[in-house]
Amino acid sequence: MQFERRRLQAASLPEVLATPDAPDALCCLIDGDQMTAYLRPELLRGRDPQAMFKVPVQVGGFKDSMTIQCPAVDGVVGDAPETEFFAGKRCVVAIRNDERPAILREWLEHLVQHHGLEAALILDRAEPAKADRDSLQIEAEIAGSKRLRDLKVMMLSADVPLGHPELGHEAHPMNAPDAPGKDRMDHPEADPWHSPILFGSFYEFARQMYLERARCVLALDPLDLLPAPDGRHPNVFDAAEAQPGTYVQLVGHRAYPWAIRPNALPEFADHICLRFDEGAGHGRWCYAPQPDQAAVWRWRRVVGVPARQDLIRFYRCMALRYGEETGGGQQVSRLVPKSSLVESDFLLNIAEAAGHKPRRLPDAQTRKDNQRRNDVAIVTTMKNEGPFILEWLAYHRVIGVEKFLVFTNDCTDGTDTFFDLLQRKGIVEHRENPFREMDLKPQHAALAAAEKEPIMKNAAWCICMDVDEYINVHVGDGTLGALFKALPDANMISLTWRLYGNADVHEFDPSPIIGQFDRCAPEMARKPHQAWGFKTLFRNIGLFKKMGVHRPKGLKPQLVDQINWVNGSGKPMPEKEYRTAWRSTASTVGYDMVSLNHYAVRSAESFLVKRDRGRVNHVDRDQGLAYWFRMNNNYEENRSIMRMIPRVEAEMARLLEDPEIRAAHEHCIAEHRAHIDRLMATENYRKFYGDITGERMERLSRMHLHFGSAVFHTGPDCVPDEVVFKDQPADFFFTVEEMEGEQEF
Fold first, then answer.
1. Cβ neighbours for 682, distance < 8 A, ≥ 6 positions apart
2. CA gyration radius, the chain
3. Within its chain, how far is the Cα of 310 from the centroid?
4. Would you tell me how many other CB atoms lie within 10 Å of the CB of residue 571?
5. What is the block-wise mean pLDDT of the chain (745 residues), using blocks of 10 residues?
6. Integer Cα distance of 96 and 104 in angstroms
7. Could you tell me the superkingdom of the organism this chain comes from (predicted)?
8. 403-408 and 296-297 as β-strands: parallel, antiparallel, unpaired?
9. What is the DSSP pairing of strand 282-287 with strand 594-598?
């Protein structure tokens, strides 16, 4: 075993580094307005030390030339390259950022045993004193390994930090790519010795100073597990050398443990899980340098060299580098949403072959007792919605909903007493919303309480929806039975909102909502952001842990292959939507079979009461002019739901035959009318009513399709009168600069 150390002498260099594309520059460093270029060492040989010459430099979009004097460019390290150490060897070039010495030794052993590694060049990110201490431990680990007795190792360290000057340790979850809840994290203290690296030209630097004469070079880090050669995975060096003049692309998939045992540190063999909804992988490479190729080595690729089409997979074992505490031992849930993790048979076999017993995912089974029934239960929250209760119940009873669980709070119009009556009649289950005792928003408290209610626990299908939302089935006879028949295998069905405006209706009218309002957003309404929100009918078989406002939450990843989630056109939802999606996108929206009519504003007078009442979810946000502007969409006419009016009116008439129900319904209507009159007696609400019923707002309600997202974030006042009142071409578009800060839902 041959083990050597090198210190990169760069005491005067600034901390922030960027990679130039200039062929003559080794690396380029920026410090404020100052830029320093470091040339390839061979360009310095034979030059007059006092000579001035220019080199081209490109950093980002900046291109220029720099005047250089030889004494200023002695290189980041020694005067001459040291390519003899690695000449003719199969090498790995790696960056270590606090991985344990034992992990580094295991990693090297694996590459030597299975891929024929012969030499390693490793940049240690630690500050000099720690790098020196660690290198002694690493040398001892390697010296004690029989498998590594012929390995040549060179450890590099620098006397300046190479990381981002404003970010914390790379091990902190804030820097972990999949960590949840970053918007709620406190930013860690800056740690440029261990923060994400900015030495973008490291691989090119390593090539010119050390690896120019290597037989073959693999770019990989000590947390990256490269599978042993088998029928699916080749020897990486053999693959690179088999086709000279090309390089092998490596694609890394982030692997995680399910859990780490108490008082234990993570090992390679703990990493048995992958994300089922993983995005793009990590690019790395393996390349056999050719003397006649003008190659430039980068992080993810070798510039100037064609890549082979076949890819080699590797696994980035995330708990070996990332976590709240350096050195591992962190909770996996701090690094990745555990609801996204599924076991990999391949990684599990590797762990078991190594004699390791990793923590496994707990067993999970779906419920079998209600997979053939189709009874539906709705859970909803209400406050002062009295006049609209009966129609909403009648409509959903007509289309096949059998069970209703209603939570109310702080009602003043008779809504709560009306539901008490309906509960005595056996039509609904009514509960007082426990949001104060639970210290939650009303809707979230209701959902948490609903999970314990037999009416929801025993239902075959469940959905959370509001009294201003109507399920509009477009197949068969318009019932949920027809929908389930058309989608026999689905166990989740997302119903995308169709935002219905006030259709220029100003006064409150107690007649059915679905008959009054017939204007709405177009189907392809990408904006405002809320236009494509959805609610989800889901079969109650235990695929998720709890109910959510828009869809169930807490996916049980063991059951991910049993999810059959479709959109409103019956087309499968992609896996990337399974955990957190709450709205449709251009690729997932669908209205062909079912949609959700969302009458968010109703008449202008009724909206005054809604604004005064407040919201059940975003309770701290005003439903003012900006909300009316976003949700009042009168772009086009759609009367599809009106085919249900005769059946709804018949069901309402049947319910109103009960004199107590009729009296309660009429009382709520009277209270709503009186509430409107009280609000209209105030100057504030009278002015607001004038604003939302004026010509300007009515014209804006038909122009949504022509506005950019920033218009809805900023509010209606940002649209000039000349845009509103001038006749515009059919394809006109208007937007403004995006506002900074949090945007309202």
1. none
2. 33
3. 29
4. 14
5. 86 32 39 43 44 44 44 40 94 96 97 97 95 95 95 93 91 92 91 89 89 96 94 89 94 95 91 92 94 88 92 95 56 92 95 92 90 94 97 98 97 97 98 96 96 96 98 98 97 97 98 98 91 96 96 95 97 95 95 98 97 61 84 97 98 98 98 97 97 97 95 95 94 86 43
6. 8
7. Bacteria
8. unpaired
9. unpaired
Phi, psi of 28 (to 5 degrees): -130, 135
To the question of pTM greater than 0.70 for the whole model, the response is yes
Instruction: Please give the single-letter amino acid code of residue 261.
Output: R
Cβ atoms < 10 Å from Cβ of 624: 13
Rounded Cα–Cα distance for residues 556 and 573 (Å): 17
Question: Counting Cβ atoms within 10 Å, is residue 411 exposed (0-12), middle (13-18) or buried (19+)?
Answer: buried
CA distance 247 to 238: 11
Q: How far apart are CA 596 and CA 440, in angstroms?
A: 26
Residue 186 phi/psi, 5-degree rounding, is -80, 135
User: Using CA atoms, how far apart are residues 174 and 152, in angstroms rounded to an integer?
Assistant: 36
Please provide residue 157's backbone torsions phi and psi, each rounded to the nearest 5 degrees.
-145, 165
- CA-based nearest residue to 374, from 463, 454, 448: 463
Q: Where are the beta strands (DSSP E) in 570-718?
A: 594-598, 636-637
Q: What is the residue whose two structure tokens read 């992990």?
A: 103
Cis peptide before 528 (omega within 30 of 0): yes
Q: What kind and span of H or E run contains 96?
A: strand 90-96
Q: Encoding tokens for residue 706? A: 């022509």
Length of the chain: 745
Side by side, the strands of the sheet bearing 25-31 are 16-18, 25-31, 34-39
Q: Is 509 exposed, middle or buried (0-12, 13-18, 19+ CB in 10 A)?
A: middle
Q: Is 213 exposed, middle or buried (0-12, 13-18, 19+ CB in 10 A)?
A: middle
> What pLDDT is recorded for position 742?
43
Can you list the domains of the chain with their CATH numbers? Answer: 83-353 (3.90.550), 376-695 (no CATH)
> Distance of alpha carbon 708 from its chain centroid, rounded?
23
CA dihedral for 632, 637, 643, 649, sign (positive or negative): positive
Q: How far apart are CA 152 and CA 133, in angstroms?
A: 19
